Sequence to fold (263 residues):
Amino acid sequence: MADQLKGRTVFITGSGGVLGSTYVRRMLDEGARVIASDLKGHRADALIEKHGANENFRFYDLDVGDEDGCTEIFQRILKDGWEPNVVLNNAAITGELLMGAGKPFPDFADTSVEDFERTLRTNLTGAFMIARQMDRDIVGKWPCTLVNVASMYALNGAHHPIYDGMPFKNFSAYGVTKAGIHGLTVWLAGYWAPRKATVNTIAPGAVFNNHSEEFQKRVGELIMAGRMCEPDEIADVMLFLASPQSGYMTGQLVNVDGGFSAW
Ligand SMILES: NC(=O)c1ccc[n+]([C@@H]2O[C@H](COP(=O)([O-])OP(=O)(O)OC[C@H]3O[C@@H](n4cnc5c(N)ncnc54)[C@H](O)[C@@H]3O)[C@@H](O)[C@H]2O)c1
Fold:
C-alpha cells in the first residue's frame, strides 16, 4: 500500500535497533514524517547517516530512562514545528543488551537488583514517562495514537531450555516489563478515549537477527509457522497500528508471533 501513513507524524523511541530502524524505513516509504530517537551512539549514527538527508526525517537524542529528557521531548519537537500524532514506545533493554559490558549473562539467582531495576526503568517507567508527556502535550489537542511494544514473552512464560548453552538467556525483568506494558495500554485506553486518543500493544514474536542455526531450530519448534520472523513482518502490522485504518481499535494486544501464543 503506498502512502498508508500520509499525514502521520510518528515519534519512535529506540529507533536505531533491529525493529526500530525497520519501522523508520517503512514509515518513510509510506509517506510519514518520522521523528526518530535513541541513545547517542553507533545505532543513532547509522540511522542519521541513512536518513539524515530525507526532509521527512528528524532525529533527537533521548534516553527514555531520563525524566527530564522525556519531559522536554515533545516541547522540543513542537518548537521545531512538527506535531506528532503517532507515538511508538519501542525502546527497551533486551536480554542481549545486558551482555553489553561483556559480563556473563546472570542466572536468576545471581540477578542483581541494579540490572532488574535498570530494565524496569527503561522498558516500563520510560514508556510511562513518554505516555505521561504525550498526555500533557498532545492528547486532546489533536487525534493521536500510542503503540506500546510488548513481546511474545509478556503474557507467556519463557521456554528456558531453548537457551541452554546459548550466550544469552531470557532475562526475568524483561518479561515482567513486557507484561506490565500492556497494563499501561488498557489503563490508558479508557482514560484517553474521551479525548480521541487510542492506545494498543503490539507483541512481536522472535525476530531473526543472525541467531545460530541451533537457536533458530529450537525456537522454530515452538512456533506454528515453524520459523523466526523477519523485521518487516512485524513492521507490516506496526504500520497498520500507526495508520488511520486502526482508528476503531483501542486497548488491544496484537500478537505477531507466527502462532506462538495460540497453541
Ligand atoms: N527482536 C525481537 O525478537 C523482539 C521480540 C519481541 C519484542 N521486541 C521488542 O521490540 C522492541 C524493539 O526491539 P529490537 O529487536 O529492535 O531491539 P534492539 O535491542 O535491536 O533495539 C532496542 C533499541 O532501544 C534502544 N534503547 C535501549 N535503552 C534505551 C534507553 N534508555 N533510551 C532510549 N533508547 C534505548 C537501543 O539503543 C536500541 O536501539 C523492544 O521493545 C523489544 O523488547 C523485540
